[in-house]
Amino acid sequence: MTTPQHKIGSGFGAESTADDVLRGIDLSGRLAVVTGGYSGLGLETTRALVRAGAHVVVPARRPDAARSALGDLGDPGDSGVEVDELDLGDLASVEAFTARFLRSGRPIDLMIDSAAVMACPETRVGPGWKAQFATNHLGHFALVNRLWPALASGARVVSVSSAGHRRSGIRWDDLMFEHDYEKWTAYGQAKTANVLFAVQLDAFGRSSSGVRAFALHPGGILTPLQRHLPREEMVAFGWIDEQGNLNPDIDFKTPSQGAATQTWAATSPQLDGMGGVYLEDCDIAEVAPDDQKFTGGVRSYAVDPEQAARLWTLSAELTGVNAFA
Ligand SMILES: NC(=O)c1ccc[n+]([C@@H]2O[C@H](COP(=O)([O-])OP(=O)(O)OC[C@H]3O[C@@H](n4cnc5c(N)ncnc54)[C@H](OP(=O)(O)O)[C@@H]3O)[C@@H](O)[C@H]2O)c1
Description:
Layout: H1 18-22, E1 31-35, H2 40-51, E2 55-60, H3 63-69, E3 81-85, H4 91-103, E4 108-113, E5 124-125, E6 129-130, H5 131-147, E7 151-160, H6 183-208, E8 212-217, H7 231-237, H8 255-258, H9 260-267, E9 277-280, E10 283-284, E11 287-288, E12 298-299, H10 305-319
Parallel strand pairs: 1-2, 1-4, 2-3, 4-7, 7-8, 8-9, 11-12
Antiparallel strand pairs: 5-6, 9-10
Helix pairs in contact: 4-5, 5-6, 5-10, 6-10
The chain binds NADP nicotinamide-adenine-dinucleotide phosphate (NAP).
NADP nicotinamide-adenine-dinucleotide phosphate (NAP) binds at residues 36, 38-42, 61-62, 65, 86-89, 114-118, 135, 160, 162, 217-218, 220-221, 223-225.
């Protein structure tokens, strides 16, 4: 059954942290995969999952940086976290990582796709794909499809999107920005793709193996994600002042608060039997009117089942991977 895109009143909110939503949840014996699990929200998610008893696999573009960031969790091997190599912008790297993982024969209980690049200058990867769509969507598409045999019955897949999805739907006539690249439109399209991916994956998963999928906006949090933004742009947005101080009038979340919604999506019993919906502030979001400015909710085009199916077919053609063919 499809899940209504309406709030459920979880009792958690914008100020809840990843540890708050995990209180009373024992993840001992559960295996999680967290892309980007060594920076920003992914790092806080990994730490919280490990504290709750999970074993977390962190596929990293920079494994040494990942080991260093995760060092406070203890010695590799017995700390509950392991690092492997993965570049989401390189399909051969995705194939190599998944082959290594599948050889280990372990089932995945939770998968959180947190890695992304935001508003980068025009960059092409692989066969000439735009970096944001390729990294944020196509890389995760290939990753999850290749890992499908390991996704245990009842597993959850969480696609970390953004309120930025409201900057653009899927540009069906110029997906790879052959014309007029604009970094925020490209981010918006990629983040819409993250939501549509969860909608279609959930449609496949709920009718086959009971795997459910969610997408979400984590909130606004200053992390290394802003690395491609010049200071003047962040000042112009009103995020910081000329000296780099945070604007106290903007409700930025802490990284742990920013990690809460993805952690809740992956683990909360409140979401049992649900899926295919977009979340924010640890609850299901409402659908926002198309003409509404950036105040919350999900655009209807991002949760449209027809567009989700169309994007799935196109992504399978582009990546050559489809677990449901
Ligand atoms: N922070 C916010 O305010 C905010 C708001 C809305 C949505 N989000 C979403 O939240 C998620 C996490 O963002 P964050 O703030 O935690 O950002 P972050 O600190 O920059 O973390 C992003 C992670 O993605 C990894 N990554 C980038 N390109 C990769 C590639 N080609 N292959 C593998 N990994 C790659 C990065 O690895 P390297 O460090 O090695 O590059 C990093 O570990 C993203 O999906 C973002 O769109 C964040």
